[in-house]
Amino acid sequence: MERKKLDSEQIDENLKLVIGWTIQHGKLTKIFEFKSYSAGVLFAAAVAQRADNLNHHPDITIGYQEVAIAVNTHDVGGISHLDFELARAVDSLL
After folding, report:
1. Whether the predicted model's global pTM rises above the 0.85 cut
2. Would you say 65 and 36 are in contact if contact means Cβ atoms under 8 Å apart?
């Protein structure tokens, strides 16, 4: 998949296809809630594995009963299709 920065219209169209994801501080972001801290840690580890498979690595912040995922494509200076591909992959883990 070609890494190309999406314009705001393309981002808006893609956001309709990923539930709960938003753009925050220039990154595609979602906060996931869990019943326990350890469930969030396990989820974060699964996200890390999926990210390695895609060779596209998000910021992962683990808090008490929540995990925040934030991603953009650094080499294009913004959001790309790869970010939305990662978002779908992360959502599929639940």
Report:
1. yes
2. yes
Between CA 77 and CA 84, with CA 47 as vertex, the angle to 5 degrees is 40
59-63 and 22-24 as β-strands: parallel, antiparallel, unpaired? Answer: unpaired
State how beta strands 66-71 and 22-24 pair.
unpaired
CA distance 94 to 26: 25
Buried b vs exposed e over 44-64: b needs ≥16 C-beta within 10 Å? beebeebbeeeebebebeeee
What amino acid occupies position 83? D
Task: In whole angstroms, give the CA distance from residue 44 to residue 32.
Answer: 10
pLDDT tens digit at each of 94 positions of the chain: 568 999 999 999 999 999 999 999 999 999 999 999 999 999 999 999 999 999 999 999 999 999 999 999 999 999 999 999 999 999 999 9
